[in-house]
Design goal:
The chain contains seven helices and 17 strands. It is of the alpha+beta class and 366 residues long. Strands 5, 8, 10, 11, 13, 15, 16 and 17 form an eight-stranded mixed beta sheet that branches. It starts with 41 loop residues before the first strand and ends in a 10-residue tail after the last strand.
Length: 366
């Protein structure tokens, strides 16, 4: 059991949790959850907006910080960031779904991910995503690297990642073509475009790829790390001739779900730690290649924002709901979500808006 019960009282009993360490998870945004040993990072609180490591993170400490940061529950409309009808609708639905998750570890992970997206992180754009074309010379260089990597057999399988789903009968994990020098070039070459779109100065964090997804792959809906992955992009390099259109799905700040089919050279910019995104539909084809680039605002407080989502989780998150949810059940995988009863594992696809490339200019209007 991952909960440590104290004096015979478990978390579900409603007993005070001031002496209950949060040994639930070592959740890192944008990846699989990983349990940690009981020696959690320690937290010292110099001010409500600053976190340092010095004191065991217990539920009592977490709630002290919840109050110090002026979080409230039930959540007022004005607390959502942004405060739009569609954004509130998405997350009031999601909060109700998360409250019904039976496993407490999964429930806590779901809360951290959802509150980070809904109201902990600010938004930098009106919509949350934009579409444009990458520079032609950069795309040509990436496609040459892809071709050389395939021709020379310079591919390696990616380590297991529970956000990326593959066929159980014939699992084909993504392949990587390592190109560190070209990745650094992409990271810096695309910086001005990301700064112009987000309207803030940015610090380059990481560009990784080339990643080649393979047949029957799908990606659960998820958000990325709030430590570093704030403003991001996906550059679609190319896909095999036998590939069928494979949309990336994301939610915008107006509450709309979009399915976006990208062509080689298309560039999707998005607020990746805030906007849920994924590819819940299965890919059909030999391979699909992209490169991923991430930035953070200048002077971004990485450590503080790694922990801030924990402090934003509402009180009594561990108490089982007595009412039945009006929505499909939810499964939580770290920062990733799935509605197993829904088609393709994501109910909002039923009302999605569909866009197809090639795209020619920035377009981030809802």
């Amino acid at each position: 059991m991952w909960w440590k019960c104290v004096a015979g009282h478990g978390a579900r009993s409603g007993a005070p949790l001031c002496v209950l360490p949060l040994l639930l998870t070592g959740l890192r945004h944008g990846g699989a959850s990983a349990f940690v040993p009981p020696a959690w990072p320690r937290v010292r609180h110099r001010a409500p907006t600053r976190v340092q490591l010095d004191e065991v993170l217990t539920e009592c400490v977490r709630m002290r910080e919840f109050t110090a940061r002026n979080y409230t529950w039930p959540l007022a409309d004005s607390s959502f960031r942004p405060n739009t009808h569609g954004w509130r609708r998405i997350f009031r639905r999601r909060f109700e779904q998360i409250s019904q998750v039976a496993d407490l570890n999964e429930r806590y992970n779901g809360w951290v991910s959802a509150v980070t997206s809904a109201y902990v992180l600010q938004n930098y754009t009106d919509c949350g995503y934009g579409l444009t074309r990458a520079p032609d010379d950069l795309v040509a260089e990436l496609r040459r690297s892809l071709s050389d990597g395939l021709d020379l057999g310079r591919t390696r399988p990616e380590a297991q990642n529970e956000i990326i789903q593959t066929s159980e009968s014939d699992p084909l994990p993504p392949l990587f073509i390592d190109q560190p020098a070209l990745n650094r070039k992409v990271l810096h070459a695309l910086l001005p475009l990301h700064e112009s779109w987000a309207g803030v100065r940015l610090t380059p964090e990481i560009s990784y790829g080339l990643r080649l997804y393979r047949n029957n792959s799908s990606l659960l809906m998820h958000t990325d790390k709030p430590d570093t992955h704030i403003i991001a992009s996906i550059l679609h390099v190319d896909h095999s001739e036998d590939s069928e259109p494979w949309p990336i799905v994301l939610e915008d700040f107006q509450g709309h779900t979009h399915e976006i089919v990208m062509e080689p050279g298309d560039l999707l910019l998005y607020e990746s730690a805030k906007v849920y995104h994924g590819r819940p539909k299965k890919f059909s084809g030999s391979w699909y290649c992209s490169i991923f680039t991430h930035y953070s605002p200048k002077d971004w407080d990485r450590e503080n924002f790694h922990w801030e989502g924990h402090f934003g989780v509402p009180p009594n998150w561990f108490v089982d709901s007595e009412s039945l949810s009006r929505y499909p059940s939810l499964e939580v995988f770290g920062t990733a979500l799935k509605e197993p009863e829904s088609t393709h594992g994501w109910g909002p696809l039923a009302e999605s808006r569909k866009l197809s490339g090639p795209f020619q200019k920035i377009n981030h209007k809802p």
